[in-house]
Amino acid sequence: MKLGITILGATGSIGSSSLDVISRHPQRFQVFALTAQSRVDALVELCVRFRPEVAVIGDSALETQLRAALRARGLTTQARSGAQALAEVAADERVQIVIAAIVGAAGLLPTLSAARAGKRLLLANKEAIVCAGSLLMEAVRSGGAQLLPVDSEHNAIHQCLVGAADRARDVRRLILTASGGPFRTRTDLSAITPDEACAHPNWVMGRKISVDSATLMNKGLEVIEASWLFGFAPERIDVVIHPQSVIHSMVEFGDGSVLAQLGTPDMRTPIAYCLGFPERVESGSGTLDFLKVAALTFEAPDLTRFPCLQLAYQALSASPAASIAVNAANEVAVEAFLSHRLPFSRIAAVIEETLNQTPMCRPAAVDEVIALDAQARQRAAAVIGRSLHPAPAGLLAN
Ligand SMILES: NC(=O)c1ccc[n+]([C@@H]2O[C@H](COP(=O)([O-])OP(=O)(O)OC[C@H]3O[C@@H](n4cnc5c(N)ncnc54)[C@H](OP(=O)(O)O)[C@@H]3O)[C@@H](O)[C@H]2O)c1
Q1: Could you tell me the distance, in angstroms and rounded to a whole number, from the CA of residue 245 to the centre of ligand 1?
Q2: Domain 3-149 has what CATH class?
Q3: What dihedral angle (degrees, nearest 10) is formed by the CA atoms of 295, 17, 155, 181?
Q4: Where in the chain is CATH 3.40.50.720?
Q5: With contact defined as beta carbons under 8 Å apart, do 333 and 353 qualify?
Q6: Does the beta carbon of 331 lie inside 6 Å of ligand 1?
Q7: Ligand 1: nearest atom to the Cα of 207
């Protein structure tokens, strides 16, 4: 029997890599549902190619347009929209695999829905686990889901840990590698444009994660993600800059052995690993040419030029509310940067100020996570507003 798949965020970079791998295995996989937020045309093109049962557009105002476009192409795909529809296609009984590839905390509810419904959950949407790690892990346990990380670093660690009898006891530390992003060697970070920040040296990705890679916040979010996925305290998760992006991450065991997973920088490899697990299936990625790579080098991250990584460690040690605040403030700041309302060099300051104003607490339910996320977004927007329109000196004195 073919395995039914829902792709949340099908029109994005991970969605497109996932569909590429899926299309190589027509006997094994069948697309059940594809979703997008607002790009109706891109979603319809994917429907023409993959013929899903359901297409969901996040923005409900676009449902009629989606339905008409599907009909115009002669498709029987059902058009749906909104948060409830996203959650339902993630939990549908005809689905065995859900690929969580929405960007941002917006992906949390359908990701939780897939976990509660006991699906094989391929998690790319790191913001979901960053802001609701404990709730997501609990939903995976109680729903009987199988959580497999798509993020290449966590996927590498998953590969290194297979066979480790007792992960917490056997392992000394996890070592996440980071490319260092496009500004690794640049000293002046004052006049960076969105296009420069999105031009990653090794990976082709969506714009938000590309900016996160440039600030090193991506690595910070990954430290938090690794802590929840594998159950390690921040002291046992290290980050090392590895500009070639060939080693995707490593695990150091108690006997001193270090295992690493290597490969070309192509997200189809971790996606194929998750789709086929425990078998290996063809991904379409190229062969790693060691003679071309020639050298693998390593550096310490520069926390003075890239303070976002430190802020994420700080939040992870402080409280779950702090992780929510860091993630929300980062989303707001990156959006402001991408729309030319905030300089690149101010992203970290917005996150730090938001974090400093955040009361520390541990949300016990998803509604509390959503409320904390909304509060942090408001604080971050206010910080950005103040930096654009500073109060006159007389007002500051009061
Ligand atoms: N790209 C990578 O190589 C990579 C690697 C590791 C991890 N990840 C993680 O994977 C996730 C996706 O990244 P990406 O690079 O694929 O992002 P992307 O290219 O920007 O795609 C995002 C997808 O999410 C949809 N979307 C956006 N906002 C939404 C909302 N509010 N509600 C519902 N759907 C929404 C988009 O729909 P529209 O097209 O209609 O806007 C699109 O389908 C992120 O969490 C990222 O950190 C990505």
Answers
A1: 21
A2: alpha beta
A3: 50
A4: 3-149
A5: no
A6: no
A7: 20
Whether pLDDT at 188 is above 60: yes
DSSP state of 350: H
Task: Give the pLDDT score at 169.
Answer: 76
Helix 207-215 × helix 217-230 angle, to 10°: 100
Give the residue, by CA position, lying nearest to ligand 1 atom 44: 103
pLDDT tens digits for range 243-272: 999 999 999 999 999 999 999 999 999 999
- Chain center to CA of 90: 17
Residue with tokens 């009361």: 359
State the DSSP H helix or E strand holding residue 315, giving kind and residue range, or none if neither.
helix 308-318
- What burial class does residue 292 get, using C-beta atoms within 10 Å of its C-beta: 0-12 exposed, 13-18 middle, 19+ buried? exposed
CATH 1.10.1740.10 domain extents, the chain: 319-390
Check residue 202 and give its pLDDT. Answer: 85
Q: Which atom of ligand 1 lies nearest, measured to the CA of 205?
A: 1
Q: How far is the CA of 104 from the centre of ligand 1 (A)?
A: 7
Q: Residue 54: phi, psi to the nearest 5?
A: -135, 140
* pLDDT in the model for residue 179: 96
Distance of CA 162 to the CA centre of its chain: 22
Q: With 60 as the cut, is the pLDDT of residue 391 above it?
A: no
Whose C-alpha lies nearest to ligand 1, atom 15? 206
Is residue 223 a contact partner of residue 313, using CB atoms and an 8 Å limit? yes
Ligand 1 pocket residue status of 39, Cβ below 6 Å: yes
Predicted TM-score (pTM) of the model is 0.96
**Phi and psi angles of residue 41, each rounded to the nearest 5 degrees, phi first:** -60, -45
Q: Which pLDDT band, with edges at 50, 70 and 90, does 395 fall under?
A: very low
Ligand 1 atom nearest residue 125's Cα = 45
- Its CATH architecture, for the domain 319-390, is Orthogonal Bundle (1.10)
